[in-house]
Amino acid sequence: HVALLVAAGATPAAALRVCVACHGFSSTTPAVLAARLGYLTTELSLDAAGIGRLLARWPRAVDCDPKTALAPRLAYFRRLGLGGEDLARLALRAPALLGGPSLRTVIMPRVAALRALLPLPPPDLTRLIARCPTVLLASDGAVAERVGFLTDDPAGPRLTPAQLARAVAAHPPLLEYAVPAVADRVSFLRDAVGLDAASLADVVARAPTLLSLDVARNLAPKWAFLTSRLGGGPKTVARCPVVLTLSLGRRIAPRVAFLEAARAQPGGRAVKLKDPFPVSPYLTWSDVMFAERGVRVPLAEWVAFRDAHVAAAEERDGGKMGAVPVESAPVVATAAA
Questions:
Q1: Predicted local confidence at residue 302, as pLDDT
Q2: Are 282 and 226 spatial neighbours (Cβ–Cβ below 8 Å)?
């Protein structure tokens, strides 16, 4: 049994945990075990590494009869629109959905509750479940509480149904965030940034990933840079909400530094850095577009400057930001609704 599990992708330690977790495993023949492993590989579109991860998280996966336990659940999720990669993600992120709560009395009612709670078209609901299957494992009132904060709570952004649908469709993990953390980020946007009620709702709807960012480590330093160095303000964020989602150390600061250096050169680009700085497109352009259209230098020159700037910041601050990829696609700055 251990040899079969290891050959399928499990580590020896994980294989031993499977043998311990599956109480009836001793009576399972090698042929039956091999068939179950083959079923998981085929039906969940998992390679050996995926099977290893699945067994590490859910040792009893091979203790389930495929026909009676797994097949009905997989068929249901396929009817919802989940494909092979979606099912693989679901199995690895939320394996309990394949062998835990009852399909008929828990999972199906929770899907129905999501349909009633969220004004999402079927493709977006499918995408939500595919990207965030753990929402189906949350307590019955947890998702409703999060949606209520986003739409009705005076301390929340007071999203309209259309804005809620737009935000969740763009960033499904929004429904996984704890209300106190989201409240802290909304409070920062309202009180520190100074967004009025209408702008706050619009900003959250257009850039919902803002509600995933820690205030002290992420939002506050970007806001301080935007206001002190670039002459930005609430209108800057209202016009281009994604500016607060961009990396300060790997994108914003290096580009501003390059523009400042370029202005100091004879014949340099006369880009205004104040009142207000043109956040879009200079910060939202891809690396390729920034080099070619923004500062009109070879891409290699810009990338070398950026990497040197990042390395200097790492040395100064004693942190590591990791390698910075060269981007060919721009950050989408969604137009106001």
A1: 94
A2: no
pLDDT reading at 269 higher than 70: no
pLDDT in tens, 196-206: 999 999 999 99
Decide which of 165 and 2 is more confident: 165
Q: What pTM was estimated for this model as a whole?
A: 0.82
227-256 residue pLDDT tens? 998 889 999 999 999 999 999 999 999 999
Q: Which of 284, 291, 206 lies closest to 252, judged by CA?
A: 284
92 contacts 44 by C-beta, under 8 angstroms = no
pLDDT-based confidence at residue 336 (cuts at 50, 70, 90): very low
Query: With contact defined as beta carbons under 8 Å apart, do 91 and 54 qualify?
Result: yes
Q: What is the 3-state secondary structure (H, E, C) of the chain?
A: CHHHHHHHCCCHHHHHHHHHHCCCHHHCCHHHHHHHHHHHHHHCCCCHHHHHHHHHHCHHHHHCCHHHHHHHHHHHHHHCCCCHHHHHHHHHHCCHHHHCCCHHHHHHHHHHHHHHHCCCCHHHHHHHHHHCHHHHCCCCCHHHHHHHHHHCCCCCCCCCHHHHHHHHHHCHHHHHCCHHHHHHHHHHHHHHCCCCHHHHHHHHHHCHHHHHCCHHHHHHHHHHHHHHCCCCCHHHHHHCHHHHHCCHHHHHHHHHHHHHHHHHCCCCCCCCCCCCCCHHHHCCCCHHHHHHHHCCCCHHHHHHHHHHHHHHHHHHHCCCCCCCCCCCCCCCCCCCC
Q: Torsion angle, CA of 69/132/10/7, rounded to 10 degrees?
A: 70
